[in-house]
Amino acid sequence: MPARLISPLWNSLALERGGAASLQDQIVGYFRDAVLRGRLKAGARVPSSRALAAEHEVSRITAVQAYDRLVAEGYLVARPGAGLFVADSVPDHHLLPDPAPARPSRPRPAAAGRPRAALPPLPAIPPRPSEVLPLSVGIPALEQFPWADWGRLSARLHRARAPELLGYGDARGEPALRRAIADYLGPARGIACSADQILVVAGAQQGIELIARALTRPGDTAWIEEPGYPLGRVALSATGLALAPVPVDAEGLDVAAGRRVAPGARLALVTPSHQYPLGALMSLRRRLALLEWADAADGWIIEDDYDGEYRYAGRPLAPLYTLDRADRVLYLGTFSKVLAPGLRLGYLVAPRDLVERLSALKTAADRHAPRLPQAVLARFIAEGRLAAHLRRTRTLYARRRLALLDALGRAAALVARESPPAGLHLVALLAGTGDDDAISRRALADRVHAAPLSRFYAGAPQARGFVLGFAGTPETEMAPAVRRLADAIAAVGAPRRARAQRASSAR
Ligand SMILES: Cc1ncc(COP(=O)(O)O)c(C=O)c1O
Is 373 touching ligand 1 by the criterion CB < 6 Å? Predict the structure, then answer.
């Protein structure tokens, strides 16, 4: 049977000259759409490239290249000597409904397949404003970033044009950076380790996820601090772990409560140096109990030492890692708080026998951290610049912390929660009742970022207030920012009180 020619249809091809899509793309899009919507039937012959070019006033090469693409993508087939035909490989159930003819630049229509199975839910990710605002938690003094040193070291590296830094690198991180971190951890955190125990990761965040994936199975249970780090919950859930919130008190995570709540847990995510967000320093008693649990339960401990470098009085307590005799602790550090979170560089220190497994998962995730920033950071640490930056910022943050405490002392609606002088943030509780989430949203409109404490709880919030960062907020801005937060508390509380008064006088 002679093949039908499709001239009436292809004549409806309307090309837009000078539009966003090239003529070739428009021709391809037109034929693709016509095949998928069943307007061009399997086996139909399409006009020759010469005819297409003449009819639509496009160059022959445009027509030929458009057809070549349609053949390569399987919409058309060439039969030698006979011409080009619509392929018969598009099954009926793949055909799309036929609304008005679609242009290639139109957005994809809504999914037409079978309904998807429900996906497991993930814990909520608290919103964070796109710009750094006064009182933003977890942000160091970005205006203190050592641009001059960083620029000098980067320029030196770029001048050297080392081609070896442009290829794929070691999944564990640049050897020079791992050596520099190992050397730094002794004096900075009292950790004795060697470079081959270190894996450079994309922030502590990635470290949590990698460790969980490496050492647990989906369905296992993890102890998390309650309240705790919201993105830690997301990372652990993403690996398929069930979360068991364990209360914290003035001594840190309550290990006995953990044993009661989830006796079969295999992992604990803890912040012993400065509990996040409440600030407790985990007592020696609890540290030993936690290590004992891990050893007996064949469990693992992630020690998230996110801001352990900052302590403003007394001597810092050595990390839990230094007490571990059974290789159960994986220590996590980050450059987000000591330099800048945008670097996305952190590290973990692992027992030697786990490094290979962790680096295989790092390869699976993203091969390795970007090499040039790693090389700059390695020099920055080795030259002693990080130690100098830490000394400078420690003094600065101690002052900023006092400025925040002072400002809170004058805000009747807020009570600073007692915690050791450490870290980059403080917790202020609401003096009365109130919806910290609504107040936080209101304060955001007034350019203050006061993270609501209730969002740090996995379960029902046990306290209402705010987690306030002082490190990134200049002293002069502290009191005005706290005043704006107090205004937000008054503004959100006032209508509610007025409503309550109206309701009681109506009774
Ligand atoms: C408790 C805690 N752990 C880990 C992190 C992760 O830091 P990063 O992924 O930026 O290294 C943060 C960041 O705010 C944090 O607060």
Answer: no
What does pTM read for this prediction?
0.85
* 311 pLDDT more than 90: yes
pLDDT in tens, 50-104: 998 998 899 999 999 999 999 988 899 999 889 999 988 776 767 777 665 545 5
Could you identify the residue written with the tokens 């705010």?
Answer: 466
- Cα 351 to Cα 191, 330, 358: the distances in Å are 13, 7, 11
Question: Which class for 489: exposed (0-12), middle (13-18), buried (19 or more C-beta within 10 A)?
Answer: buried
Residue 223 predicted with pLDDT over 50: yes
Element of type H or E holding 152: helix 147-160
Atom of ligand 1 nearest to the CA of 276: 1
Q: For residue 253, give the H/E element and its range.
A: strand 252-253
Structurally, at CATH architecture level, domain 4-90 sits in: Orthogonal Bundle (1.10)
Q: In terms of C-beta density within 10 A (0-12 exposed, 13-18 middle, 19 or more buried), how is residue 277 classed?
A: buried
| Percent of the chain whose pLDDT exceeds 70 | 92
- The CATH-assigned architecture of domain 388-506 is Alpha-Beta Complex (3.90)
For the Cβ of 273 lying below 6 angstroms from any atom of ligand 1, the answer is: no
H helical segments located in 385-447: 385-409, 436-445
Tell me, using a 6 A CB cutoff, whether residue 229 lines ligand 1.
yes
Alpha-carbon gap, residue 35 to 86, rounded angstroms = 7
Q: Sort 482 into a burial class: Cβ within 10 Å, 0-12 / 13-18 / 19+.
A: buried
CATH 3.40.50.720 assigned to domain 145-385? The reply is no
